[in-house]
Amino acid sequence: MTYAIIETGGKQLRVEPGRFYDIELLSAQPDEKVTINSVLLVQHDGEVSIGQPLVSGATVEGTILRHLRGRKVLVYKMKPKKKTRKKRGHRQEITRLLINSITLNGQVFAAPAAAETIEAAESPAEATAE
């Protein structure tokens, strides 16, 4: 099992090839390839590479599936006995990112073909339509 811990949008996230994750908004278009260079840890078959703070030569490549908005968070402020109330909502902009491969020093740990087969298995309706 191969995974990596990356940093994006001020947060650290454990990612695996072939899975998608919701991260902070990226400035790229859907179906565009993205390379993340801020990799903090890479684990492959029991071998662990830990960076100080980043692993040199490690990259994570992914494809942007779509941009969306998160669930609404309500912020309610009230001062007792003052008749002061404020109710505001917030929806965070999110990017859904499919992880294609994890690379360390030029060695690809998860091939993009494996990620495509997993993606095809998740959507059987599209596979039968083709």
Describe the structure.
The protein has 130 residues and is mainly beta. The protein has a domain at 2-67 and 94-114. Helix content is 13%, strand content 55%. The protein is built from two helices and eleven strands; from the N terminus they run E-E-E-E-E-E-E-E-E-E-E-H-H. Strands 3, 4, 7, 10 and 11 form a five-stranded antiparallel beta sheet that branches. The chain has a four-stranded antiparallel beta sheet with strand order 2-1-5-6, with no helix packed on it. It has a two-stranded antiparallel ribbon with strand order 8-9. The longest helix is centred in the C-terminal third of the chain and has 11 residues, at 112-122. It is elongated. The protein starts with a strand and ends with a helix. The relative contact order is 0.23.
What's a quick, concise take on this entry?
13% of the residues lie in helices and 55% in strands. It is built from 2 helices and 11 strands.
Structural class: mainly beta
Overall mean pLDDT stands at: 87
Question: What is the H-and-E element order?
Answer: EEEEEEEEEEEHH
By oligomeric state, this entry counts as single chain
Poorly predicted regions: 125-130
β-sheet strand percentage:
over 45%
Percentage of helical residues? 10-25%
Approximate shape: elongated
Instruction: Tell how many strands the DSSP assignment holds.
Output: 11
Main β-sheet: number of strands, strand sense, barrel status? 5 strands, antiparallel
- The Cα radius of gyration reads 19 Å
End-to-end gap: 31 Å
User: Tally the helices: what do you get?
Assistant: 2
